[in-house]
Design a protein that fits this description.
Largest sheet: 6 strands, mixed
Number of domains: 2
Structural class: alpha+beta
Number of strands: 20
Helix content: 25-40%
Order of helices and strands: EEEHEEEHHHEHEHEEHHEEEEEEEEEEH
CATH architecture of the largest domain: 3-Layer(aba) Sandwich
Number of helices: 9
Distance between the termini: 44 Å
CATH topology of the largest domain: Rossmann fold
Mean pLDDT: 93
Shape: globular
CATH class of the largest domain: Alpha Beta
CATH superfamily of the largest domain: P-loop containing nucleotide triphosphate hydrolases
Radius of gyration: 24 Å
Strand content: 35-45%
């Protein structure tokens, strides 16, 4: 296992600053995910930890040892890390066994030790029966397992993964998430994982670092990030959510865009607010506080994905699948609300919408 300490790291490419004052501690045995949109700096930070990039300012420590600072730089091969890239990077002319053995062969490890360690790594990723196959005979998921076994064969204390599942189909991606998490727990290693896929981050992580424009917006457990986001960006990036403009007064929030309808509110914010509601936290109820008209519904099997017109606002509701049988488009409905998130109306929502368009 290995700990990682990132202290005041900034990285600039010319005039473009891609990471700003990155400060975090990663503990032994943690599974950490850097989550954020494309270009937010997450891969750059991973490459700085690996030693493929050098920061402009700040320091990086692995297991308490300074590996990158103003006057210190330890090359990647001496940092005790394993790394898996987005592209599998397996050698097409080598068998599965030879691919996995490659890092040990470079180190001139004794042949018998190579055999034992490679067989153990292949067993770990369920590829023992493919040891003599060339990569061309393997599926994409199997090739990704070869790359994972190759990263693990040298028993690194720290494993870095840069969007390793993005080239796989949806079902294979889902199964590989659980495989990687199983291997991490079995080996007890520290993992830093880069993705823009919030489902991957939620399923695999002990903690998630949500990054935007090179700055950590929030770091916490999946439950904390999902249910207690610190701002509109985090709420929007992790999970499905709709935002509504409201006015908080006394014990209620009134929504001008919903024809002046309101919801109970016991929080501390007053005045203009941004209200975020996840569609699974809305439900059809005969005595719900909001009333509207069901415009559309999409039967997805396990859920009924609905749009309800409340005043001038279209509200998304994700109901249980069997609700599809009892609902008709055009009917009047009432909505209950299990939970909502209230943020200061500070212009962040408008900026997010501007960037999207």
């Amino acid at each position: 296992m290995a700990s990682v300490s990132i202290r005041n790291v900034t990285k600039a490419f010319g005039e473009s600053v891609v990471i700003r004052n990155f400060n975090e501690e990663i503990q032994d045995g943690e599974f950490i995910t850097f989550l954020g949109p494309s270009g937010c700096g997450k891969t750059t930070m991973l490459r700085i930890i690996a030693g493929f990039e050098k920061q402009t300012d700040g320091e990086v420590y692995i297991d308490g040892q300074l590996v990158s600072g103003k006057k210190t730089f330890v090359p990647p091969e001496k940092r005790g890390i394993g790394m898996v890239f987005q592209n599998y990077a397996v050698w097409p002319h080598m068998t599965v066994f030879e691919n996995v053995a490659y890092p040990l062969t470079l180190r001139k490890t004794p042949k018998e030790e190579i055999r034992e360690r490679v067989e153990k790594a292949l067993e770990l990723v369920h590829l023992s029966g493919h040891r003599d196959h060339l990569p061309a005979r393997l599926s994409g998921g199997q090739q990704q397992r070869v790359a994972l076994a190759r990263a693990l064969v040298a028993a690194p204390g720290l494993l870095l993964l840069d969007e390793p599942l993005s080239n796989l189909d949806a079902k294979l991606r889902e199964s590989m998430r659980f495989e990687i998490k199983r291997i991490q727990k079995e080996m007890g290693i520290t993992v830093v994982y880069v993705t823009h896929d919030q489902a991957e981050a939620m399923a695999m992580s002990d903690r998630i670092f949500v990054i935007n424009r090179g700055v950590i917006q929030q770091a916490g457990t999946p439950e904390e990030i999902y249910n207690e986001p610190v701002n509109q960006f985090v709420a929007d990036f992790l999970g499905k959510v709709d935002f509504f403009k409201g006015e908080a007064q006394d014990d209620r929030i009134t929504f001008p865009g919903m024809g002046g309808q309101s919801l109970p509110y016991q929080g501390e914010r007053r005045g203009k607010v941004d209200v975020a509601i996840r569609p699974e936290n809305l439900f059809f109820s005969q005595d719900g506080p909001l009333s509207g008209v069901l415009e559309t519904q999409f039967y997805m099997g396990d859920v009924d994905d609905c749009r309800v017109r409340v005043g001038d606002t279209l509200v998304r509701v994700i109901a249980e699948g069997f609700a599809y049988r009892s609902l008709k488009e055009g009917q009047e409905v009432r909505l209950g609300v299990r939970d909502l998130m209230v943020f200061e109306d500070n212009g962040m929502l408008e900026e997010m919408l501007r960037i999207r368009t």
